[in-house]
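Late entry, written up from scratch paper. The run itself happened at the end of the previous shift, but nothing got recorded in the book at the time, so transcribing now.
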Amino acid sequence: MEKQRGLSGDTAKWALILGGSRGLGLATAQKLARHGYGLFIVHRDRRTDLEGIGKSFEAIRASGVPCITFNTDALHAEKREDILREVRKTLGTVGKIHVLVHSIAKGHVKPMGGEGPHLSHEDLQLTIGAMAVSLYDWSRRLIDMKLFAGDTRIISFTSEGSSKALPYYGAVGAAKAALEAISRNMALEFAPLGIRVNCIQAGVTETDSFRMIPGSDKIKAYATKKNPSGRLTSPADVANAVYLLTLEEAAWITGTVIKADGGESLR
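Output as recorded:
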């Protein structure tokens, strides 16, 4: 487990980002850092990619906020407990997690029909577990350990594929639909604890995960053409929406899916 220490738990607000080394997660980390949040970032990357990722993390630290990173498997229960023990140690008796961002993108993009290899039962289980159930697993443990603040925002990323059928997207679409359902119930049942839970439905965003989808170039061209804003959604666009949901003025927004797509889904 890689761990980089920053400042003490006296930082006013902390965010825990699951999947924060690239794409939407990294853009969100950068945005929250600019607004003074201390960061815990959990990511899973190969050693060959760590140099570039490390530069992004160092740039955040150079801005003066603590950025503590863990290169480990966020889906492994024992490793999750190791991380949370370190989080509690850093926060001490004063610090709390004010924002939890779920940006884990691990799953399978395979066809259900046509030529194989086809999507399997195990593929579906892994994808739904990683991209949906893990949000609840982490949230539940943070509640059990009393690490959440009295006003906490939990935010995750969904997509239009949660309600529309797309080729090769069966497992991810199922995971996104499950993510939305889990988030709604978390919003309902965690509200007495001061926890607000929302999903952001981003438009098509050119990330590493997106490029893994077969035919992503065609999807990109189509999304750009149909978006009334004339371009794809950027990670920064989505990070801006995350930040809006962390504001005091957004305290009455919970249990919903908010679109940040420049109007892409309008037609």
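The mean pLDDT is 93.
(Scratch paper discarded after transcription.)
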